[in-house]
């Protein structure tokens, strides 16, 4: 479609800055997921913040768009949403913390001549394009342990979103989001963890099991710190602001189709996308 590919990685800060300076806009999607999976979450967080700053400083004063990525779970982890069933909204912000520091930095760029926005993604971004996300991880853990586990009574909820809807959201954010915006990449606003476990168990032909928080590392690996979080999340303001409407299948319907169980998880290399102008009408998709 006429775009130029520029290869690099998150540790090449000079390369990120140079590419950002040359681009018409930046969408930052990368994260060191492998480091997170092996228990070095903070190293991944530090690398992500450094990448944000390399890109952001290159864009200061240009009025170019910079769309970054956060997570709705960080709002629940900060104790803002989920307490007493409180639904998380786009205006919710915390002073700092893992990944939140990068999001706060990006939002602040809106006051420095960057049309910046942060898309907080649901923990389960799913579709036939997903080979390494949290849905695949939950399935892998269930397959390995022989049970689909959930903590307590499983009533705590996680939001989800279809990859194809999320792609549209990032395009709209690049084109329209006001400076300093926070957006919610959420389709299903909250699925009970017991339902998540039951759906996976049904496809694998195994049982579900209620576990304690202390048992979570045994059954759910690197997701243990997060699986007990209650993360009901609204997308109302995002839909109103950008005219975004999720139209693709929700998490349960998508997982029920079986594609997650037909292919093995793939190890994907994180990437950064640099947006360039195009007159090709196909870019609208």
Report on this model:
This protein has 285 residues and is α/β, with parallel strands linked by helices. The chain has helices spanning 13-22, 33-37, 41-59, 73-77, 100-108, 134-145, 163-176, 193-204, 216-220, 236-242, 251-256, and strands spanning 25-28, 65-71, 115-121, 124-126, 147-151, 157-162, 181-185, 188-192, 207-211, 272-275. The strands form three sheets. Strands 7-3-2-1-10 form a five-stranded mixed beta sheet, sandwiched between helices. Helix 3 packs parallel to helix 5.
Strand order of the largest sheet: 7-3-2-1-10
Radius of gyration: 19 Å
User: Largest sheet, if any?
Assistant: 5 strands, mixed
Low-confidence stretches: 264-272, 274-285
DSSP, total strands: 10
Q: Name the helix and strand elements from N-terminus to C-terminus, one letter apiece.
A: HEHHEHHEEHEEHEEHEHHHE
Fraction of residues in H or I helices: 25-40%
Report the β-strand fraction as a percent range: 15-25%
Number of helices: 11
Average pLDDT figure: 91
Shape: globular
Which structural category fits the helices and strands? Answer: alpha/beta
């Amino acid at each position: 479609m006429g775009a130029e590919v520029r290869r690099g990685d998150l540790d090449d800060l000079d390369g990120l800055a140079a590419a950002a300076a040359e681009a018409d806009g930046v969408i930052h999607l990368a994260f060191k997921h492998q480091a997170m999976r092996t228990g070095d979450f903070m190293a991944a967080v530090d690398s992500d913040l450094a990448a944000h700053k390399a890109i952001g400083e290159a864009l200061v004063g240009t009025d170019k768009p910079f769309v970054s990525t956060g997570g709705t779970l960080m709002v629940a982890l900060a104790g803002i949403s989920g307490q007493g069933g409180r639904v998380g909204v786009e205006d919710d912000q915390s002073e700092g913390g893992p990944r939140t520091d990068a999001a706060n930095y990006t939002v602040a760029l809106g006051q420095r001549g960057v049309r910046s926005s942060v898309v907080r993604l649901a923990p389960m971004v799913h579709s036939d394009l997903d080979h390494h996300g949290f849905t695949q991880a939950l399935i892998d853990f269930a397959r390995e342990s022989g049970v689909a586990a959930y903590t307590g009574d499983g009533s705590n909820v996680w939001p989800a979103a279809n990859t194809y809807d999320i792609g549209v959201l990032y395009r709209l954010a690049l084109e329209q989001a006001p400076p300093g915006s926070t957006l919610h990449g959420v389709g299903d606003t909250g699925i009970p963890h017991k339902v998540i476990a039951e759906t996976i168990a049904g496809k694998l032909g195994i049982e579900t099991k209620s576990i304690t928080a202390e048992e979570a590392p045994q059954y759910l690996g690197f997701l243990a710190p997060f699986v007990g979080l209650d993360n009901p999340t609204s997308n109302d303001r995002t839909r109103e602001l950008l005219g975004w409407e999720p139209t693709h299948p929700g998490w349960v319907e998508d997982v029920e189709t079986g594609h997650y169980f037909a292919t093995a998880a793939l190890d994907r290399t994180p990437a950064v996308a640099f947006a360039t102008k195009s007159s090709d009408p196909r870019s609208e998709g």
